[in-house]
Every structure is written in C-alpha cells, then in structure tokens.
C-alpha cells in the first residue's frame, strides 16, 4: 500500500469514526507532537484512547481534505476539521512520517 493510500485510509476511518480500522494504520510506537514541539502522546494504546474519547465527545466530527503533498517518506495533509455542524471549523496541517508501512509520527500545525 502506498504512503498516500495509508494516509487516505486512516482519514476515511477517522471520518467514519471506525476506531478499530483507524488504529490499524499506525505503528505501535506512534508519536504525536505539535510541529517543532515535544511529543504530547506516545504509543498506540494512548492514541486509541484519545480518539475513543474524541469520537464519543464529537460524534459528528469529520475532517475535509483540502490538499495533500507526498514527498518521499512523508505525507502532508491540509485539512479543515468540523467538530459538529454548528461549531466553527478549524484548519490543521498533519505531517505523517512512516516506519515501514505504518504511520510512526504525526506532527500537527493548527490554525
């Protein structure tokens, strides 16, 4: 599976709030960080727990892909995130790095 297909697969599962499928795209040692910041989450169990809470709190949450760049082992998505139909959307850049065929690190830039 291509890097782009992996990132698209996790985005599709995220939008479906299919937690079981969503976490299959991530390495067991997944690291999450704000760009140029210290990691704020490590490990697949912690990542699963975070999204379980997110999906419960925002059952209509979804991310709309605005653009995608693939450069070697890195995929960068620019997304608009909607927590609910009434909430003001916000934008993020998600920078996905890989270990093997799974996402090993995500660095976020939030606007």
UniProtKB/TrEMBL annotation:
Residues 7-106 form the SnoaL-like domain. This is Nuclear transport factor 2 family protein. SUPFAM superfamilies: NTF2-like (SSF54427). It holds the Pfam family SnoaL_2. InterPro entries: NTF2-like_dom_sf, SnoaL-like, UCP030561. The lineage of its organism: Bacteria, Pseudomonadati, Pseudomonadota, Alphaproteobacteria, Caulobacterales. Signal peptide: none annotated.
């Amino acid at each position: 599976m291509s890097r782009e297909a992996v990132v698209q697969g996790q985005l599709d599962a995220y939008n479906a709030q299919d937690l079981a499928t969503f976490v299959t795209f991530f390495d067991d040692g997944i690291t999450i960080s704000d760009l140029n910041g210290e990691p704020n989450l490590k490990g697949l169990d912690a990542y699963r727990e975070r999204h379980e809470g997110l999906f419960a709190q925002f059952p209509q949450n979804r991310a709309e892909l605005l653009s995608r760049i693939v450069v070697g082992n890195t995929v960068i998505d620019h997304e608009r995130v909607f927590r609910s139909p009434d909430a003001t959307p916000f934008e993020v850049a998600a920078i996905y790095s890989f270990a093997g065929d799974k996402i090993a690190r995500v660095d976020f830039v939030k606007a």
